[in-house]
Write the structure tokens for this entry.
Amino acid sequence: MKIAVCVKQVPDTWAEKTLSAEDSTLDRAAADGVLNELDEYAVEEALQLAEAHGGEVTVVSMGPERAAETVRKALSMGADAGIHVVDDSLHGSDAIATSAVLAAALDGKGFDLIVFGSESTDARMSVIPAMVAERLGIAQLTFAQRVSVSGSDVTIERVTDYGFDTVTGSTPAVISVVEKINEPRYPSFKGIMAAKKKPVDTVTVADLGLEAATVGQAAAWSAVQDFAARPPKPAGTVVTDEGDGGSRIAAYLTEQKFI
Amino acid sequence: MTTVLVLAERDSSNGTAKKTTLELLTLARRLGEPQVVWFGDQGSEAASVLGEYGASAVHVVGGQDMADHPVVPIVDVLQALVAELDATAVLVPSSADGKEAAGRLAVRIGSGVITDAVDISESGVATQSVFGGSTVVHSTVTHGIGIYTVRPNSVAPEPAPTTCGVIEVDSTVSEAAKSARVVERTVAGKGGRPELTEAAVVVSGGRGVGGSEGFEVIEKLADSLGAAVGASRAATDAGWYPHQYQVGQTGKTVSPQLYIANGISGAIQHRAGMQTSKVVVVVNKDAEAPLFELADFGVVGDLFEVVPQLTDEIDSRSN
Ligand SMILES: Cc1cc2nc3c(=O)[nH]c(=O)nc-3n(C[C@H](O)[C@H](O)[C@H](O)COP(=O)(O)OP(=O)(O)OC[C@H]3O[C@@H](n4cnc5c(N)ncnc54)[C@H](O)[C@@H]3O)c2cc1C
Ligand SMILES: Nc1ncnc2c1ncn2[C@@H]1O[C@H](COP(=O)(O)O)[C@@H](O)[C@H]1O
């Protein structure tokens, strides 16, 4: 089985995120870049599927030069090869362009499964996997808390408001995973060493047969007009329970007209 | 007046229109004349409440076969209606299905898409609250028609009564939709309380609750306030409370008037789902718990002492 896993480099989860005053894009230089948390689960699931059914795992990422670290991280967890789309023209791309680039990078390579995280911690849109499925015209099996594969049949449990839906489709398919699905492994020392020798194909927008004018901020189909930091919330009142903690909350809620 | 399409969100337990649908109609009216797209039965019954909030028509898409395929049938119908009615904007709820449908529709019809809007102006400028509520962003769609997903509890529904016609949509499942099929639905919920994402008050429990029995204390407080119950991932992962009540990055995003967190430390992934709550009350025995930073009112203490006392006080005040 040929499996692709799409990973994104995002600012460190705990880092304060800001938009750049210059062009209203996420200020990526301001924080350390890490592998998007949910994509660790995606890599783990891809590796487990390859281990169970045989096959190769290719990491695919679109992002600036330094996103190569993120590709390496996934390789050090055990993925076999990488495709890194790097191009200055990509700066400021919206979800429309990102999905077009990823679809172009994935198309025609014979991937049976394309695994995503269900959300990036910076964009938080949860749309890329569905958009890539739309572009490639293949099954969308997303928000999975469980994946099972048997031959060309793929069955997932899609998390819903009321519990979950069992959804089936056949390969080739797009899968996105939630964090309940597995426990991502840590790269071993051996894995880190091995990753250095694994092949990473660095490609440009032109290599993918796309026009530079269709990606990046100027080509985006939505635009930020302005942004502002919300003034920090004034500090609240914190009291220590002296046998009256519940009553004090009740008094506060009464004052606030909740009760 | 131009047409604005609104995708209805229905209550999974009784099939009626969720409050989010009325919120969407309230915003849609600023942009044009709203018409609702309704999947499943009870669409004609809903016409009166939809009309009450300004919908001039509800397009009812019946047939179990449409409901048995995730997301794509929604995109197929929205695409057809956008073309037929020459719609200038589409508003969908910021649920998993809603966002995915919006994304796919954007690709298909060549439009920009804005997710998680908390407000939309007459001229189509969307307000988003990003980075855990620390930054407010105004954006517009600059290509095609405006496709927006809107967060629940962002605006108060305002009535604007009109007559809402019922139009049956005759639709068949497309080949694209057939590529994935729902074979079983598993309900793991606890009924009887308001829906988490639309509740005005949410009472949550975390690892500090200590076990599933501990959640009785949380549920009693919730019931005294007519609130929904939420949980941290530590609590859902431990199996103390069903997963779909998880609040946070990979759970629900809630924005209630009042959020009461009990025995929750305040990890960034939890905050991501509750940071925009209007008033936050925190009970935690550790004075250093980071969630106190967000608290409007906090009590450092044992939740098993504080919460029952609070519940008793509320019960006695309302009697
Ligand atoms: C990819 C990813 C996604 C995630 N998504 C989510 C998410 O959606 N939602 C989420 O919540 N988390 C999420 N997490 C997990 C998150 O990082 C935290 O681990 C989790 O929120 C911790 O839950 P908690 O606060 O209940 O537990 P803890 O951090 O263990 O905190 C328990 C708190 O209870 C207090 N306490 C203990 N006993 C009592 C008592 N008797 N009375 C009062 N207080 C008491 C303690 O002082 C402590 O502060 C995610 C993590 C990852 C990696
Ligand atoms: N630039 C990117 N390169 C590779 N994968 C991406 C990129 N952006 C998003 N993804 C994938 O899409 C998922 C959802 O992202 P989003 O729609 O931005 O919330 C992520 O978890 C990744 O798996």
About this structure: The pocket of flavin-adenine dinucleotide (ligand 1) is lined by residues A 37-38, 179; B 206-208, 232-235, 246-251, 263-265, 267, 269-270, 273, 283-286, 289, 302-304 (CB under 6 Å). Residues 5 and 214 of chain B are 45 Å apart (CA to CA).
